[in-house]
Amino acid sequence: MKPNDLVVQRPEGLYCPPGDFYIDPWRPVARAVITHAHADHARYGHGHYLASSDAQGVLRVRLGSIDLQTLPYGERISHNGVTLSLHPAGHVLGSAQVRLEHGGQVWVASGDYKVAPDPTCAAFEPVKCDVFITESTFGMPIYRWIPDEELFTGINDWWSRNAAAGRASVLACYSFGKAQRVLAGVDASIGPIIVHGAVEPLNAAYREAGVALPPTRLVTDVADRSELRRALVVCPPSAVASTWLRRFGEASTAFASGWMQLRGARRRGGYDRGFVLSDHADWPGLMGAIGATGAQRVIVTHGSIAAMVRYLREQGLEAESFDTEYGSDDLEAAVEKGGSAELPAEPPQESAP
């Protein structure tokens, strides 16, 4: 790190010294700027939260009563002399990149992002900066996503075949973001859509934000059990291994994730099918996003850090890394089982620059 850096590492998380606030901190702090509502980035226990206006509904679903200030995309505010604005990250509903300007420098912290089109959230917006903090979840050249049209043709064909055979189509994916993208992309005329109880409150938040989703029901709302044999069932991965699944009788199971690009991932999970669907950028998306910022210095976080740092240095960029606690599927899984991504119980303390 260098003197006067706008973002540095601290035990609590990524810290802006001149502004005296944190970005997606993993320990309790007085002031937290939140890029999005996934559990590894948005945790309960901070004194004050700032997030995009689009994130309000999903943050309330996940964190309940918090001191939340929201900011429309692109609107600038000043705090302790730091000009701050939030810009679409294209990851999930309300996801934002954090732009910081101070002392002649512009930094952007991306959080998680996706550059592919997605009808359930605002499209990724490249933001010019001097320093770009980027994720690297799928930061290897092997990760290249197929177009959504091809992807959802595959999902719809699988669902149609199962419905014709009288068996439910159980599609496992994370309840926040991935599930809503699945719902927005499938052909709802094939049959009824049943969702797990962890999914429906987030669906409601998406609908309240103006995102169009097809009608969905809980299994307890289905009076005619024969409907279940034609249904698409969207649920978190934990539900596939639970007794909840028995309600549907004969079923074909599938998992939607970017990790399905890896040979053997579906087999290890015990799923009948795997669909390569991610809410993160693939390798071309990461490289295109980094290039579009014009940044000459890039700081890489969670994912394939070493590979990306090495590649970016080979391209002539000044590349380094931050060690973060982002990218934890365990936290997201805990939330989907009814737990929470809670921080330690001690009250947040004011941080000195």
Explain the overall architecture:
By secondary structure, this protein is α/β, with parallel strands linked by helices. The chain has two domains: 8-142 and 279-336, Metallo-beta-lactamase, Chain A; 148-275, Rossmann fold, CATH 3.40.50. Helices cover 23% and strands 24% of the residues. It contains nine helices and 18 strands. A seven-stranded mixed beta sheet has the order 7-8-9-10-11-17-18, covered by helices on one side. The protein has a six-stranded mixed beta sheet with strand order 1-2-3-4-5-6, with no helix packed on it. A five-stranded parallel beta sheet has the order 13-14-12-15-16. The chain is globular and about 65 Å long. GO terms for molecular function: exonuclease activity; ligase activity; RNA endonuclease activity.
In terms of per-residue confidence, which ranges show pLDDT below 50 for 5 or more consecutive residues? Answer: 339-353
Radius of gyration, rounded?
21 Å
In helices, the fraction of residues equals 10-25%
Q: Please, how many domains?
A: 2
- For this structure, the CATH topology of the largest domain is Metallo-beta-lactamase, Chain A
User: Strand tally, please?
Assistant: 18
- The CATH superfamily of the largest domain bears the name Ribonuclease Z/Hydroxyacylglutathione hydrolase-like
Q: What is the string of helix and strand elements?
A: EEEEEHEEEEEEHEHEHEHEHEHEHEH
- Tally the helices: 9
Beginning-to-end CA distance, first to last residue: 15 Å
Strand content: 15-25%
Coarse shape: globular
> What is the structural class?
alpha/beta
Please state the second-level CATH architecture of the largest domain.
Answer: 4-Layer Sandwich
Just give the CATH class of the largest domain.
Alpha Beta
| Main pleated-sheet profile | 7 strands, mixed
Strand order of the largest sheet: 7-8-9-10-11-17-18
Rounded mean pLDDT score: 92
Organism: Caenimonas koreensis DSM 17982
EC number: 3.1.-.-
GO molecular function, one term: ligase activity
Protein name: Ligase-associated DNA damage response exonuclease
